[in-house]
Amino acid sequence: MRTTIFKLALSSAAFMLALSAVAQAPDDPKYGATETERYNNALNLSFFNEAYNSKDYATAIPLLQDLLVKAPAASENLYARGISIYGQKAAASTNLAERNMLVDSIMLLYDLRLKYFGDHESRGKAYILARKAQDYLYYKPADREGVHKYFKEAIEANGNDAEPELITGYFKELVDDYKNDAIETEALLNEYDRLSKYFDTDPTPEKAEAKKVFEQLFIMSDAADCDALERIYGPQLAANPSDTAMMAKTFILLARGNCKSDFMLSVGEKYYALKPRSDVAMMLAAALEERKENDRAIKYLTEAMQAETDPGTKANIAIRIAGTELSAQRAQAAANYARQAISINPESGLAYLMLAQAYVIGTSGCGDAFTKQTVYWLASDALSTARRLLADDADQVKSIDSQLAAFRGNFPSAEECFFRGIKDGDSYDVSCGWISGRTTVRERK
Question: Less Cβ around it within 10 Å: N or C end of the chain?
């Protein structure tokens, strides 16, 4: 008996709330054309909300359908709740025809919401289309054409304000289609190129994180195959040799695909000639270094260093050049660039590491054995400084300690030092061709 009284009390309360809402309806045209229509539609909207809250969908659906015809602009919430109702029924349905019909109803509700509430300040067209795309993927993932269509519409509507998850979610679907041979390589590459610009416009921390996911998806797709890129973009560039935008896109894709082909270098060098930029020079140098074309690599690195204005980046480029010069066994040039890096950034442990290596290679130009041995004092000084500056890098410290031990094995013996009139701890001026500097005498132990 008490339960029945409680239910009656709830119904009475809901009815009173409905009457309160209806009292405001006669003067609001969104509820209908006449006073009677507005009264009835406002009352039905209140009954619909009560049925929705009670999960009485059998009552809610006829009211929803009636309101969509008679008062489609009455409430934004009508659409959100209607989509929720049909969504729950679609998720529970085991009948394919019924499920498809329910999904069609969801899409219709999104279209009507767009028509009547598409100009909402925060939940307007862009918001509605994004939710529509995500729901379509959830309910009809097998319809790839539909998934692509709705995501494209949503991304276009959102522009640079698109949620990062919307972009990465769409691209994941494209990658899946590519792996299943549902789209061609060129289609995926074009979408990659189009969508990647979004992450570089008005960057945010959220975009930066999403970009990592986006790039990883692209790498995992294996679409950036060097041969495929040449096959697709080679003819296009041949037909439009002055198209810098096409050159830029092709070169970046080739660089990200870690291509080191003649085609990659040809495209990059032509693009660099038209648009000389330090980042392009660095990418070209990396490809040339891997091909052991050190002189060409150094040319681009030097130009990049000259154009660079950021001190930290400039110092790093100098270190890169020093490393390339070392690979070419040009120790003096390597030492010069290492010193330039140190002058820009005295805290660069890598620069001191390069300088030490340059000294060791440079011993080949010394005259007698003793003079060569003294160079290892200077090399050890540089290496010890590198160790201090790189103390937080355990792997580097381990490697440096090993090198220091090897260097000490090349110090002059106690007998040699005695013969030269020097001893441990004395100051000594090393002079070996281009290598010179004041250091401390250390005997080989």
Answer: N
- The percent of the chain in helix, strand and coil, each rounded to the nearest 5, is 75, 5, 20
pLDDT score for 5? 36
Q: Compute the Cα dihedral for 16, 17, 20, 22 and give only its sign.
A: negative
Residue 364 DSSP one-character state:
G
- Give the chain's mean pLDDT: 90
272 has a pLDDT exceeding 70: yes
Q: Which residues neighbour 200 within 8 Å (Cβ) at sequence distance 6 or greater?
A: none
Residue 30 has pLDDT above 80, yes or no: yes
Phi and psi torsions of 275, nearest 5°: -130, 75
Q: What is the DSSP string of 255-324?
A: HHTT--SHHHHHHHHHHHHHS--HHHHHHHHHHHHHTT-HHHHHHHHHHHHHH---HHHHHHHHHHHHHH
Alpha carbon distances (Å) from 192 to 95, 105, 284: 37, 32, 22
Pairing of strands 427-432, 435-440: antiparallel
Q: Which of 90, 346, 430, 80 is CA-nearest to residue 440? A: 430
Read off the amino acid at residue 30. Answer: K
Nearest-5° Cα angle at 416, 415 to 422: 95
Q: For residue 438, what are the β-bridge partners?
A: 429
Q: Report the alpha-carbon distance of residue 113 to residue 128 in Å, rounded.
A: 8
